[in-house]
Amino acid sequence: MALLRRCLTVLLGISLLGAGTASTLAAAACLPGRAWLVRGAVLLQDPAAGAALTVPAEQAAAGAADVPQATPVPTPQPSPPEETPQSAAPAPAPTPQPEAAPLPSAAPELEDPGAIRAEHFEQGSGAGYITLDAGSVRNLTDHSDADLRAAIDTPSLPFAVEVDSSEPQVLILHTHATETYQTWPDLVYDPEFAARTRNTDLNMCAVGEQMARVLNAAGINTLHDATLHDSPSYTGSYDRSRATAQAYLEKYPSIKIVLDVHRDAIEDADGTRVKPLCTVDGEDTAQVMIIAGCGNGGSVPLPDWRLNLRFAAAWETTMESRTPGLTRPVMCAYRYYNQDLTTGSLLIEIGGHANTVAEAVRAGQYAAEALAVLLGGTLP
């Protein structure tokens, strides 16, 4: 067999002597024993190239069979698209499985840790604030305090929620779902950590899940969407969360309230992170802040913003009445946040990036309990 291979190599080389190296390779590759034939053909055309040509060991060893297996050519795969919601309304999404084990419950050794301080944010009063029976609203608009007071003092909510309904009444979602918290109580943070994670046990989905659990137990049919609208791309998050909310509203027109649950990020000028904190039943709990957008007739198109503000003030009052110290003043400002979707659309900040996960989940529970009471639900 070895002698036959050498003879075939020489004959092929002579017959193709006038051809180019590429043509020689193509011809040789079609014949049995092509690994050796290719080398012989190239030697005759270009001795230097032939000497440099390497025959894989597994092909040389397969000389008796003379038919080595072809290496499959991988098919290029397209890059995964951004997580854009489908036009059809998604079913209530189960919380995705976390990617990794939770972070340590005690601060690790950090080479250059950042500092954290706790602060309890008080309610406001005087010019620029509307004082409620419990809690307050901070006026960051050009409207007078009296104008906001007139909207807030209307006695009823701008919608009616049906308790114990088989149809969803509330939707909870997260435009910035990957926002996360500290996992240790120590007042230091890792400056290398961006305070974002896809782990749904540690990000905003954990807070939203707790809020949905409380509301459903109280008879307020609530859906929780755990889509990571800010992953893989932060840009366009609000467009994606809007599409998700619209799909739910199309499928479930019974939904009256859309809550976009976030966390804040407060820092001092020197980089110290601030965690808004209160104590409830002896446990550290994050403070919460509702943001109610105000339309400006142009770039912020919220023609019914006074109705959303009315809802925000009622929820603020109930939270602060039931759990004194839980809330920071409602922020009424020229913000959009997709609050035109319903007259019950609000954004709520649960703590900040310096709070712990446990503090935030507790705050979400108390905020949801107050909402359930406001809507006529029954707490277990």
Give me the secondary-structure topology.
Layout: H1 2-15, H2 21-28, H3 34-45, H4 47-52, H5 57-61, E1 114-119, E2 129-131, E3 136-139, H6 145-152, E4 170-173, E5 188-189, H7 204-217, E6 222-224, H8 237-251, E7 257-264, E8 266-267, E9 273-280, E10 283-286, E11 288-293, H9 305-322, E12 330-333, E13 344-352, H10 357-374
Parallel strand pairs: 1-9, 3-12, 4-6, 4-7, 7-13, 11-12
Antiparallel strand pairs: 1-5, 2-3, 8-9, 9-10, 11-13
Helix pairs in contact: 1-3, 2-3, 7-10, 9-10
Signal peptide: 1-28
InterPro entries: Spore_II_P
Region (Disordered): 63-110
Mean pLDDT: 81
| Share of helical residues | 25-40%
From the N-terminal CA to the C-terminal CA, the straight-line distance is: 87 Å
Overall 3D form? globular
What is the strand tally? 13
What would CATH call the architecture of the largest domain?
Answer: 3-Layer(aba) Sandwich
Helix/strand order = HHHHHEEEHEEHEHEEEEEHEEH
The computed structural class is alpha/beta
Oligomer state of the chains in this structure: single chain
What is the fold named in CATH at topology level of the largest domain?
Answer: Aminopeptidase
In CATH, the homologous superfamily of the largest domain goes by the name Zn-dependent exopeptidases
Give the strand order of the largest sheet, numbering strands 1, 2, ... along the chain: 2-3-12-11-13-7-4-6
Q: Which stretches are poorly predicted, pLDDT < 50 over at least 5 residues?
A: 1-89, 93-102
Largest sheet: 8 strands, mixed
Rounded to an integer in angstroms, the radius of gyration calculated over CA atoms is: 33 Å
InterPro entries: Spore_II_P
Signal peptide: 1-28
Region (Disordered): 63-110
Pfam families: SpoIIP
